[in-house]
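Suppose you are handed a protein chain with no further information: no name, no annotation, nothing but its sequence. What can you learn? This example shows the usual starting point.
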Amino acid sequence: MRRRDGAVDPQDVTQRLLECVRSWGGELLLGRTVSGFLREDGQIIGIVTEEGAIAADRVVLACGTGISALLDGSGFSLPIEASPAILLRYHAAAQVVNTLIAGDDIEVRHAQNGDLLAAEDYPAHGDENRVEGEAQSAIEGRLSGTAPLQLQACAVGMRPRPRDGYPIVGPLGATCLYVAVMHPAVMCAPTLGRLIGDELLHGVNPAIPHAYRPARFINDGV
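A reasonable first move is to predict its three-dimensional structure. Written in structure tokens, the prediction is:
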């Protein structure tokens, strides 16, 4: 990596953003399952949750692979594929990576608390334990001072990937629905987040490329 390159922990960034929302007077309704859309006279005017309906001027769908299920019955369909990846967290005795290392056999960086984070593609054989063992061996073999690593967590994350590889950003037809999905989201978010925020507040933002608009899929019958 280059000298000025760096890395962020998506969970830490998300938590800080939520704290900012609270500090600005925003209300967070966490832990509620959205089961569908609230309708009035055939028009979508909000969402339906397990704890009741919530009306809204704009409903932003930014839940990755969960967007497809939410759109069932809405009249819209977007080709969003789920790409699984294995996320590993190890306790490391020392700081061995300054920014990020990405190679053929390892992709690692440190979390803020010093843990070593690694990511691996999901294997065709489906054996997550085997992948974890191979990853640990590769890290300990390539990075001096890491052995013995202690596995803290192993999880499978589902990365949303639009069919053509480009972000899908913008309103769905003349409804109040607005979609924002992309990969890799944590890298695109700083720029696209600003563009999307401006569009939601002030109207169509010409800085968002036409190639990102959901109309490219809606118009071709997907």
